[in-house]
Amino acid sequence: MASRRQFLRHTVAAALALPGFVLAQAPAGTRRVAALFASSPATASHFPKALGSGLAELGWVEGRNLQLDVRYGENDVARFRHLAAELLALRPDVFVAGNEPVAREVAALTKTVPIVVPIGFDPVGAGLVQSLAKPGGNVTGYSVLNYEVMPKRLQLLREAVPGLKRVAVMYRSADGNADRALKLLADPARKLGLTIIPVEIRDLDGLEMGFKQLGKQKVGGILVVPDSFFFQHRVTMADLAIKYGVAYGTGTVESAVAGSVFSYGPNAGALFRRSATLVDRILKGANPANIPVEQADVYELAVNLKTARALGIKLPASFLVQVTQTIE
Questions:
Q1: How far apart are the C-alpha atoms of 223 and 209, rounded to whole Å?
Q2: DSSP alpha helices (H): ranges in the chain?
Q3: Which of 79, 139, 132, 131 is nearest to 113 (CA)?
Q4: Which parts of the chain have pLDDT scores under 70?
Q5: What is the value of pTM for the model shown?
Q6: For residue 285, which phi and psi values (nearest 5 degrees)?
């Protein structure tokens, strides 16, 4: 652990020493907010827009009294670390870490800069906060219970796909929470009469191979363990699902818009917008150690009817009555 901290300190120093690196100076009176997102600009640019819009509503306007520095990690943990060091070298007043994996890298680099996490999966288990009620350090934000609601997604998938018997659970090879997700699904799957098939995905090529194999095995449905890789490649996943005739459910409405049969989870864009309130409180002097981590309290079920039709799925009324957003 000590060697890791030493490495990260050297990373910050290296960022400052890069040829041509200049510590940008914001106009007098301007507050600086850094934001690092796990995926790419093409798939996540609406998140900083939501954050910026929320801040503007609270009186923090870019070019007037706010400097918002944004970076994208492209699903590369090493890149998370480098960009976090780069942003911290700009001396932000608040650091918005797009999701929990990003937050872990930022928190390893600083114990003083306040960190807001709009999408925390398990901030206590990840060691980011002491408790949801009393974070106790420099991190606060929102908890979305992404793993705890996976049994609900499994139930919805069972309802959406008549005759479903086998469900693949896709997870990233580097995801330390995959075992936890699979354990959470074991008992609900048994009660629903479903067989769970774990599928490890390493890269984009592996993603297509996974879908192809599941199609050959006549696996009727897929759930994914939350990861920014699946979020970034949501359009590819939708295309592969139709190509190989496999329905899949996710946790983000963006994925349902891209083509998953359904999504069930909180509205991520709304959480980034709401996170502006936490940033505002910190900029006005609040200590993140005393700002409770809030739990997302509204979970939405979005269904893509076009995808359902393409897969030949007739969604039952018991499923449709729960839908909060319909995508044609």
A1: 16
A2: 2-17, 41-44, 46-57, 77-88, 100-109, 150-160, 178-192, 204-216, 228-232, 234-243, 253-258, 268-283, 305-310, 317-320
A3: 139
A4: 1-28
A5: 0.83
A6: 115, -5
Sequence-separated (6 or more) residues with CB below 8 Å from residue 69: 32, 33, 34, 35, 87, 90, 92
Closest CA to 76 of 84, 66, 86: 84
CA distances from 155 to 118, 300, 316 (A): 26, 15, 13
Phi and psi (nearest 5°) for 86? -60, -45
d(CA 268, CA 283): 23
**Secondary structure string (H, E, C) spanning 79-93:** HHHHHHHHHHCCCCC
pLDDT in tens, 181-235: 899 999 999 999 999 999 999 999 999 999 999 988 889 999 999 888 999 999 9
Strand-pairing partners, residue 300, are 265
Count of C-beta atoms within a 10 Å radius of residue 176: 9
Domains, the chain, ordered by start: 2-144+268-295 (3.40.50.2300), 150-265+300-327 (3.40.50.2300)
Strands 94-97 and 115-120: parallel
